[in-house]
Write a structure and sequence with these properties.
This protein is of the alpha/beta class and about 325 residues long. About 40% of the residues lie in helices and about 20% in strands. The two termini are about 25 Å apart. The structure holds flavin-adenine dinucleotide.
């Protein structure tokens, strides 16, 4: 199996990759296949599959009674990775998170991935459970992505949680982590965030994928700051074409990113969804071209379950 870091280091061209979400519980994987199929024309180097933690929902039980239930609306990340590898012969990158996992459950999940031949991972902390507002780790779990990276690196060295376990198999995971050109929303400032990003790399992360951004200048400044702060692994820009007017408020509120005035004004003036998508694609093509010209190792697109705009962008670039 190939490692993402080898693709990044060995390619002379800018690579193409994208991220998909598992289908909602109860929906068929066929819709996901249909969405990915057209994008295979551009020979993606890898496909990321996101992980979605549990949520609390309150079900009416008659009268004023509400029952709190724990549900996972999009299960299946690892199964989807295996299915995509099998069907499209492409490397997949499951996202694994700290939230909701005890360290031992993480270890067992990593063993499953190793048995499946999945050797690429994105190691993330995860966000708070929607109704909680603040991230709370499991009492036996990790607080930060860097601790998860450390656990994976340990397994790569044959070190498991049970210290009596001698001569454990050395796994061979390549580890991606998240970076935030506009700073992680909880970090007091960018330099603190960069300090912790460096810590993730020092613990063994091989490469960084950024949060989406709509102004390339922010990415270029972020890369310069990373290099100045001793972070020398490849940094992959994450991009998303805007596809609806609603996203002008939804994306900043969920992902804590700025949308430049020129882009938001153009989207606001659109009279139809088709016009919005056209603007979103044009903006994303321009961003992608500039980034490609600057020599980024890979362009990574957030599909959020829809591939038509990404198809149009990729057609211009790859
Ligand atoms: P961390 O690196 O742990 O950082 C979290 C915060 O803590 C930052 O503010 C950081 O500065 C600070 N920090 C880090 N270490 C320390 C320390 N030791 N002491 C004090 N402060 C510290 N979420 C999902 O649930 N599923 C996904 O599939 C998913 N995919 C993503 C993919 C990408 C490319 C990106 C950019 C994000 C993704 N997320 C996903 C969202 C991510 O889980 C959230 O942004 C989360 O809030 C932070 O995750 P992290 O891995 O960056 O955390």
């Amino acid at each position: 199996m190939a490692k993402i870091i080898d693709f990044l280091n060995n390619s002379k061209e800018t690579l193409f990759s994208f991220e998909v979400l598992p289908p909602l519980k109860g929906q068929s994987i066929q819709d996901l296949f249909n969405h990915i199929e057209p994008l295979m024309e551009f020979n993606p180097s890898f496909i990321d599959v996101t992980y979605h933690r549990e949520e609390y929902v309150y079900k009416s039980r008659g009268g004023d009674l509400l029952e709190k239930q724990v549900v996972r609306k999009r299960p299946g990340t690892v199964g989807i990775c295996a299915a995509l590898m099998n069907r499209f012969k492409v490397e997949t990158v499951p996202h694994i998170i700290c939230g909701g996992f005890k360290k031992e459950e993480t270890e067992n999940a990593l063993i499953d991935l190793n048995f499946l031949g999945i050797e690429n991972l994105m190691a993330l902390r995860g966000d708070a459970i929607k109704s909680e507002g603040v991230f709370r780790p499991d009492s036996m779990g990790h607080h930060y992505a860097s601790e998860l990276v450390e656990q994976i690196t340990n397994m790569n060295h044959g070190v498991y949680l049970d210290q009596d376990l001698q001569q454990g198999v050395h796994t061979n995971f390549c580890i991606g982590v998240a970076g935030y050109p506009e700073k992680h929303f909880e970090a007091p400032n960018l330099s603190s965030d960069l300090k912790w990003l460096k810590h993730k790399v020092d613990q063994g992360a091989d490469y960084i994928v950024t949060q989406m951004f709509f102004n390339n200048q922010k990415f270029f400044e972020f890369v310069d700051l990373c290099r100045a702060n001793g972070i020398h692994v490849p940094i992959i820009p994450g991009l998303k074409p805007i596809t609806s007017q609603k996203q002008l408020s939804v994306l900043p509120s969920i992902f804590h990113v700025d949308i430049p005035d020129e882009l938001s004004s153009a989207v606001e003036e659109c009279k139809s969804l088709e016009e919005v998508k056209k603007i979103g694609v044009q903006w994303c093509i321009q961003q992608s071209k500039d980034l490609k010209d600057s020599g980024v190792p890979c362009l990574h697109y957030y599909s959020m379950g829809k591939s038509d705009s990404i198809y149009k962008v990729a057609k211009e670039l790859f």
